[in-house]
Fold this sequence. Notes:
- The protein has 92 residues and is of the alpha+beta class.
- The relative contact order is 0.27.
- Strand 1, helix 1 and strand 2 form a beta-alpha-beta unit.
- About 9% of the residues have low confidence.
- It contains three helices and four strands, in the order βαβαββα.
- Helices cover 34% and strands 23% of the residues.
Amino acid sequence: MSELSLVIANKNYSSWSLRQWLAMTELGIPFVERLLALDSDDWLRNIATLSPSRLVPVLWERRTGRGVRNLRHRGHRRTAARAIPECRHLAG
């Protein structure tokens, strides 16, 4: 089992973030949204950890279940544009 977290910027300013959020929502892919407002203290504190390239959107996949340690944002990170087609099978 996996948990997906989509790290995005303001949807009204970042069309890339909006596109990925819309695609995942419309496909019914379950995910947790992590919004980092552009040019905010939250952005400055967290962007390097959540996206070392400092680009959004980014999709984090954290494996959950037996034998797997659940650590915050420890898992696989991908640019969301490439990850969404791969996660389509998760739609309910």
